[in-house]
Amino acid sequence: MNIGIEAQRLFRPKKHGIEIVALELIKHLQEIDHKNQYFIFVKPDADDQCIQETENFKIVKLPGSSYPTWEQWNLPRALKNYKLDVLHCTANTAPLSPGVKTVITLHDIIFLESVNFKGTTYQNLGNLYRRFIVPRIAKKNFLVTVSEFERKNILDLLKVPADQIEVAYNAVNPMFQVISDQPQLSAAREKYKLPEKFILFFANPAPKKNTPNTLLAFAHYCRKYQNKDVKLVVTDSSLQYIKGLIKSLQLEDVEDRIQIIEFIRYNELPQVYSQAKLFLYPSFRESFGLPILEAMACGTNVISSNTSAMPEIAGNAALLVDPYNAEEIGETIARLMQNDFTRQALRTNGLENVKRFSWSNTAHKMLDIYNRIAYPKIS
Model pTM greater than 0.85? Predict the structure, then answer.
């Protein structure tokens, strides 16, 4: 087969969940499939060449000034040159007229739901694009999503046939493991100026990430329990955004307990996770929640939400909270920080829970889907 994989933003240095998932899938397809020919379509302005070409994996760099232009115009024109049997679009959308059988990974459909999570201008424009495209392509193509929770959502909202959508779970990169090597830990601590004791939180400004409530929860913990030696390390966000929230939420009294690290390199996250006392992930809405598994793989305790896909992914290995209740989150932080037995039990359960998810299994499943879509059986 000739298989195309759309991964427009794969090479950008600051990767988020969708790019990480595409990267891991491609890497594991390279490991298991030496027979079929793959063409990986990316933008040329990306500079983090995180995969290498092999005999049957070729990188195709396509220009494009904007995401819609690249996807709806440049990509379909280029596809004509490659005689593809199937195209896999990895990031929620796809060309309206690709001219080839297409598989779409639909990570979530939050942009179609009634809950209105307003984000930045860039995020809002992206949601408008997805709201226009996804309903027009969903029933015409085969869909893959990342959790049973999200599959049910898609079936309910988009009314696609049940046999036209399957679940292929995400997993964690093997580099996410308990790091005990002191030089590695010390290097990360020095580079990012990590405090001696800290709680880790990814404060992406996307509204679903629940950053304001998480800061309020930490403030509740600080004010009530007076544990002055524990800090909150906030990353994946700008200094300006967090400083603005501290002011608007009137958290100046705990500001010295909040350390902002705007960006941590992906390949250095294991060293940071491994030193955190716990990891906060109380999102309002997730279709999977990959950082839950990353933290668990590093032996770090997790507090997450009792909503959407997070219970499905966390299993019995995290403490789950109401993400709308900042006081409850703060009390759960205290419970975990004060109870060594609970911490050890969650650590053990977390390391076991991660084993449920495998990139190799997902790559095999996707290869099977490519075969079924390219060469459907005639009944």
Answer: yes
